[in-house]
What does this fold into?
Amino acid sequence: MARRILPGFPLALGITLVYVSIIVVLPLGALVFKAASLGFEDYWRIVSSPRAVASYRVTALSALAATAFNLVFGMALAWVLVRYRFPGRRFIDALVDLPFALPTAVAGIALTTLFAENGWFGAVLAQAGIKVAYTPLGIMVAMAFTSLPFIVRTVQPVLEDLDPALEEAAQTLGGSDRSIFLRVILPLLAPALLAGLSLSFARSLGEFGAIIFIAGNQPMSTEITALLAFIRLEEYDYQAAAAIASVLLITAFLMLAITNILQARALRYTARG
It folds into this structure.
């Protein structure tokens, strides 16, 4: 008999499938079943209402802006943590994981305190005519805060494993710093960046606790989709809540599918290179 690489594989696989079914598949299935209990006309009426559409716009645009910010700042932070040694580096490296450990409601209260018009940051920004708390900008700040670690932690290990000989060879061939980064380093980082961007965007779409305190939650203006679904739950309108939540679910699945396709292409390009 051929030896199994993983002893007890059938048992481990069975336990894993049961765990995934109970924790992931069952709740999502219940959500889909509840939304499907509506007729198509009722479902479309709920998900295409002006208030719902406004919440999609606020959520999607804020998530895109937060993800774009995290792409630049998270990439720069990962680069500094990997390529440089300086006092306090370990503390900053540990601080990156703070949004994971900090309850989102606590993060929302802290951000609101800092960026309110009488807060440390908000008072300075108010003098420049910039208002953060209770505006869409506050939503972007909360999303960026909670999703930043996904970019840093997916890019950082890849940067650490990059062979310095590649950059040295490019420098020997006369490549500038910019061309080396764009043509040598960035293609190797592309799969990790795509993974981090998808996770960051997905986290921003589903963020709730950190946003409701700083957003102001004004319908048609600063109300996110997750909050609208929660409001429908408080009104005991479970079908409407499931319908609105299903829009986020469909969006997340489409985003992950597109990201996996792009990531597979990037990996093939890296392998050929």
About this structure: The first helix runs from residue 9 to 36.
